[in-house]
Structures are given as structure tokens and as C-alpha cells.
Design goal:
- It is a single chain.
- The protein is α+β, with helices and mostly antiparallel strands.
- 41% of the residues lie in helices and 15% in strands.
- The chain is built from three helices and four strands.
- The relative contact order is 0.19.
């Protein structure tokens, strides 16, 4: 989606399942070892996760909420999953 950001869309996925999938991906990235010559690199990932409310938020609204959650994950230590705050007023038109 951006320089070092990826957008993963999981159709028909409840928030609990999306959070679980993000945690699984976070753990997989953290456990991977990447060789750069003789140096082993460890990489971590931070995730922002959201699920639109039944009122069906606009895509840009959901993306902004997920981006805010991602930056909360990064600012609170990185290598974590943070759920976006999807309050009803965010999705009202």
C-alpha cells in the first residue's frame, strides 16, 4: 500500500479472526531468519487491524483507522498487533 506498508483485505472475516491472522503473520515474520552474507537479520512487523461496522464504512475511512492503529503499534514498541478504533461516528456520512 505504501513504502513499507501492505494492505491485506480478508473478505467475510470477523475482527477476531483478522486479529488472529495478523498475530500469526507477526509471529511468522519475527521467527524468520534472513541471511545477509554472514549476518543474520531479524525482522519484525507491526499491524493495524480493522473490520467495518455493519453500516459499511467507506473504504478510505477504514484505511485511515487502520493506519492510525498501525502507527499506535509502532509508537508503543513495534512488533505488535493493534485493533483500530472503529466507532460508529467514523462511518456516518
Amino acid at each position: 500500500y505504501g513504502g513499507e506498508e501492505f494492505l491485506l483485505i480478508l473478505p467475510n472475516c470477523e475482527i477476531e479472526s483478522a486479529l488472529l491472522r495478523a498475530e500469526q503473520l507477526r509471529q511468522a515474520v519475527e521467527s524468520a531468519r534472513i541471511l545477509d552474507g554472514e549476518t543474520t537479520l531479524q525482522v519484525t512487523a507491526s499491524f493495524g487491524v480493522a473490520s467495518p461496522l455493519p453500516s459499511q464504512c467507506e473504504a478510505e475511512t477504514v484505511i485511515r483507522a487502520v493506519d492510525a492503529a498501525l502507527y499506535r503499534a509502532k509508537s508503543s514498541g513495534r512488533n505488535r498487533v493493534v485493533q483500530a478504533e472503529m466507532d460508529a461516528p467514523l462511518c456516518e456520512t
